[in-house]
Amino acid sequence: MIGLLFAVTLETTPPGPPLVHPTSETLAHVLAQAKIAAGTLDSDVKSELEVWKIARNGLSGSQTLLTAGDDFRTDTTLGPSHDARGRYHGTEWHQDYNGFTVTETGVHPGQELDETALANAARGQRESGVTLIGETDSPAAYVLEVAPPRGTLEYVFFDKSSYLVIRRWRVIEGVRWISSYSDFRATAGEMRAWRVQRSDGRAFNDEDDVLQSVTPSATRDEARLQVPPDARNPVALSGDRVRLPAKILADRIILTATIGGRKVNLQLDSGASGILLDRSVADALKIQTFGRSTEATAGTYVASSAIVPQIVFGGARLNDVEVETAPFVLWADASTPVAGLLGFDFIAGCVIAID
To answer: pTM for the full model?
Structure first.
């Protein structure tokens, strides 16, 4: 979500993993042993369904992951919220609780370049951007630095005994993300981690995922893998064309909504990925929130989610809509306090004409 107003804070991230010392191992040997350790998916397996128990943002939930070659679909339920994402024949997509399906391109180009670099290094390509920088004692692991041009700086830890990947240390936009892998089990010909833990060092953002089951299949469920249509449209209009209660102040478009019988000013924002409501307003309206995450836009803040039964704009309304709640302070002019942003999840549900 963008458009929040906060004091700017600066964070520094260590450039690499601590206490790395020289090793007599070679990059080629580590990668060759790692390939053997990882195993190979059984040839008769065309797709797999994984069921996970997950803990994120102070919530417990579940996740299913259907994979078939390079195609996949993930469905995640946390608290009252559900979303899905996937990739089908190269097209990535995401569908949020509010029902809109969005196709995406170039979402994680740095990470994709990292995976390509590792694959190239395993094939012996010298200019892959992958370097064995040493080993660590805790954990006992060989450490590879993955830094291809335009990629994401990453350190991959290979266990010194098993040669399985037990940790990945990735730096994204100045924030260090650490993923740890444990409880390895032989699954359909491959050794896989049945527990994955992630942390970026910020409060409320830790994740702990535990695999419950894996069901291999000799077929593909094409219907489930395909990019789904919109699940619903939360925007409802009282007629084919309605006039919204709005005013233009300088370069801002302010709409007056009714939430729980109270008037609330919201700014139309085409740069916002969803709908934002000031936390103090949500509290005053007694809107129940769920989950907590630490986010950063022009500063660091704690955000939660909420499902609002109805937001009314004259002849238009939003029904059963998920919003983000966070501190938000904005005055459009001396008499117009603004308590949030109306972004994609409103704009995508209708055609807006501005005169």
So the answer is: 0.88
